[in-house]
Amino acid sequence: MAASPARPRAQRDLGRSLRRGFDALRDLTTASPARFAVLVFVTLILLFTGLFSLPAAAADGQRTPLADALFTAVSTICVTGLSTVDMYSHWSPFGHVITYIGVNVGALGVLTLASILGLVISKRLGLRAKLIAAGDSNPLRAHGGPINEGQTVRLGEVGQLLATVALSTLVIEAGLTVLIYPSLIMAGVDPINALWEAPYYAAMAFTNTGFVPNADGLVPFGDDYFLLTVLMAGVFLGSIGFPVIFTLWRHAWHFRRWSLHAKLTIITTVILFFAGAGAILLLEFNNPLTFGRSDAWDTTFQAFFLSAMTRSGGFSIIDIGDLHGSTLVVGSMLMFVGGGSASTAGGIKVTTLAVLALAVFSEAKGRQSVEAFGRRIPSDVQRVALSVVAWGATIVALSTITIGQITQAPIEEVLFDVISGFATVGLSTGLTAELPDPAVYVLALTMFMGRIGTVTLAAAVAASSRSQLYSRPVERPIVG
């Protein structure tokens, strides 16, 4: 009977400890949204590394080496599509299910996912949680401080944006599945197997990952233009970004009512799609290993398909290693740009390129401000765009030098695979599958930094902003 008073006391102590832990976690979500978002991503990667390390996840029932399990987890959560193992033969059905779940979780985006978890913790979408979600559509939000300009997605619309993210992912992947399934049946795929392969292809297209559920990948469907077009459409919808989908859903084809972000994203994406296809067609039309053996129509179509996939799609019909070195450089440029902000695509993002191009044009014209479609783009946005390019180029350069030194492989192949990892594309010259463990870890880190975004990473590690109540004397160095 003497032990009974101790039991309620122990329960109270446990309750207090749980409340303190809960409060600490809630404080973390509000104190630094960017750091919490990075923490969420790291936690997911560690979780999926453990899942991929399970013997049940491998087809042979053996434990997958840590380097391969970690790389696959990063590639899955970061929706990259690169792999150090044969994704079809190495993993068991359980491993494939883990991959399918992982890419859909990763597709939500690091900041959007963090805001959903913050909503669960706080039980309501408060101001800080809205800042996290809005940061996914506008990285300037992650820095804090006053932002006087109109936003891509206003704070009051964040709840609608989160609903759009979830609904669009479900609806688009379901629609792609319905369109893909008949093509698989007509290609001779067993109807039961097609029930799995169709949603798998749909998820890999919309999330811009590029993993395939069969041994030969898309090679058997090389002349199925309908299926390839559906995959391109899925990649396009995933790469334009959820804020653009949100805008199109609200305003449909009323172009004048689109946000500036949506206009710049769609226009730049279309320009790069056609320019990339034209460059690839010009460089590869006489290459006997790629397009040289095809007729004019097939060559043109495959050039557009490869142009779409280098924007972050990751699917491939031809062997990327057979491309000319000049084509690899063009592909690297397209991959480095990537897709739209707050999308399943990676890269520096098309709006970053658009802002810098407009800034260069305005400077050439001698204009005092950068303008587009009757709107002025503030200087802080231009500085962020320049910072994103600078940090992205630095990450790619350091990773390329490091992996090149470790492997002593041709530098154009190293550069291509590094940019493919940084931009979460998934295309490879064949180098990634042959990397030694030290290079595997370097490329995994590159994929992680590319996915969470250079702006988010900088905001996560930077100290809190300080106000400066004075200014230094002006002196102009010579530039150029």
Automatic annotation (TrEMBL):
| GO biological processes | metal ion transport
Question: How does the record classify its membrane topology?
Answer: Multi-pass membrane protein
**A single cellular component GO annotation:** plasma membrane
What keywords tag this UniProt record?
Answer: Cell membrane, Ion transport, Membrane, Transmembrane, Transmembrane helix, Transport
Is Cell membrane among this UniProt entry's keywords? yes
- Check the record and name the InterPro entries matching this protein: Cat_transpt
Instruction: Kindly list the GO molecular function terms attached to this UniProt entry.
Output: monoatomic cation transmembrane transporter activity
TM regions (residue ranges)? 36-54, 97-121, 161-181, 225-249, 261-283, 333-361, 381-402, 439-463
Q: What is this protein called?
A: TrkH family potassium uptake protein
